[in-house]
Design a protein that fits this description.
By secondary structure, this protein is an alpha+beta fold. It has helices spanning about 5-15, 20-30, 35-45, 60-70, 85-90, 120-125, 125-145, 175-200; strands at about 20, 50-55, 55-60, 105-115, 150-155, 160-165, 205-215, 220, 225.
Length: about 230
């Protein structure tokens, strides 16, 4: 089967069963570790149809993600044909330009975490080994962030910029940010157990959190839009 066919079958199984372990996926579809990693990248980050739980279980989140999307407007009815005489005398008003979405005031919590001495680590490891180490670190952090419903705004090298309070707000976003920071530190400690056995490495992570009032809206400069 092609990658797309395997992906479609896994989505169907996951949507039906809601939860499935990685070991079960590997056995059902005869997957190796690299193939499974590619499928996880597609389901968790590209399509956002699933969440990783403790690096062991894939959890369906497609229904929840779909409920957050705005409903598409119904297609307008097709007007009846206009007689030729009436069409000749009808005047057309210029089209109304689309209105930009309004700005919104938010209390935002921003969390940033990155690896300690990552420059030294890059000089020590082969580039492919470094990529695998950083991917494992990023996936570990992302699992904790998703658990507390944070929003990963950017991956900046070995750093992650995370928002709490946007796009989805909670009454306890400050607590969620702090719990995420503590969870990341704890999860990296667990990750180090495997890294020490495989490559003799230990990672340390820095976490910073700040909060303040912001205005969320579109920024358009030189044809590039950001929030």
């Amino acid at each position: 089967m092609t990658f797309e066919e395997v992906l479609a079958q896994i989505i169907e199984v996951l949507q039906r069963e809601k939860r499935i372990s990685y070991r079960a996926l590997k056995r059902r579809f005869a997957l190796d570790d690299a193939y499974l990693d590619d499928l996880k990248e597609e389901l968790i980050y590209a399509k956002r149809l699933a969440l990783d739980e403790d690096s062991r279980v894939l959890v369906w989140s497609g229904d929840a993600a779909a409920s957050l999307l705005p409903a598409l407007p119904a297609s307008p009815p097709v007007p009846p044909p206009i007689p030729l005489a009436a069409h000749a005398t009808q005047t057309h008003s210029p089209p109304t330009p689309p209105q930009p979405p309004g700005a919104e005031r938010r209390q935002l919590m921003v969390l940033f975490c990155d690896l300690v001495d990552s420059t030294a680590l890059a000089g020590r490891l082969d580039p492919e080994d470094l990529r695998e180490v950083v991917r494992a670190y990023q996936q570990t952090c992302a699992t904790v962030i998703q658990r507390f419903e944070g929003h990963i705004a950017q991956y900046l090298g070995d750093g992650l910029l995370v928002y709490f309070g946007y796009p989805q707000a909670h009454e306890d976003d400050a607590q969620r940010a702090v719990q995420t920071g503590l969870g990341v530190v704890e999860a990296i400690g667990t990750l180090n157990t495997g890294l020490e056995q495989a490559q003799g490495l230990r990672q340390a992570v820095r976490v910073g959190i700040h909060t303040g009032l912001v205005v969320v809206g579109e920024i358009d400069a030189a044809g590039q839009q950001e929030q």
